[in-house]
Specification:
By secondary structure, the protein is mostly helical. The chain is built from seven helices and two strands; from the N terminus they run E-E-H-H-H-H-H-H-H. Strands 1-2 form a two-stranded antiparallel ribbon. A hairpin with a 5-residue loop joins strand 1 and strand 2. The structure holds zinc ion (ZN).
Length: 147
């Protein structure tokens, strides 16, 4: 008895690292990033998701740990992981993210944009946020406009 065709825990797109969350109406189940997309773009989407797999794991960690006694430890680990991937623009910023839910939404937005093929700007839309974390860039932004 082998039934490998119906695995409702994994996304049906080949190689996708995400869990399936919804069906396309047929027998296949997909993650939120593959659901409703053209099969011709699946490979590109999967590539992006694999590239951002560390961030997907972080989002999962926030969802699982936030509000539990594990959160404090998990939060420290997450901040560490984000720095290790040189994405300090994704660190939790109390002033703008306010709480973990909104922060999670921001992180998921990054994955979402990548899966949709939206080009990420090299610098965040609000450069001052980056500058707060990066003294070198702050110096650059502080150069007079008319220099
Ligand atoms: Zn998928």
């Amino acid at each position: 008895m082998k039934d490998t065709t119906v695995d409702k825990t994994a996304c049906a797109a080949f190689g996708c690292p995400c869990a399936a969350t919804a069906s396309n109406g047929g027998s296949n189940w997909f993650c939120t990033y593959h659901l409703g997309t053209e099969a011709s773009s699946w490979q590109r989407i999967t590539q992006e998701l694999r590239r951002l797999e560390w961030l997907i794991l972080i989002c999962r960690g926030i969802r699982v740990c936030y509000g539990t006694e594990r959160w404090e430890k998990a939060f420290k680990q997450i901040q560490h992981d984000i720095r290790a991937h040189q994405r300090s623009d994704l660190l939790f910023v109390k002033e703008t993210d306010v709480n973990a839910q909104q922060w999670l939404r921001r992180l998921e937005g990054v994955i979402d944009n990548a899966a949709r093929g939206v080009q990420q700007p090299q610098l965040p839309v609000m450069p001052q946020r980056q500058a707060a974390h990066d003294p070198v860039q702050r110096v650059q932004f502080d150069l007079p406009q008319h220099a």
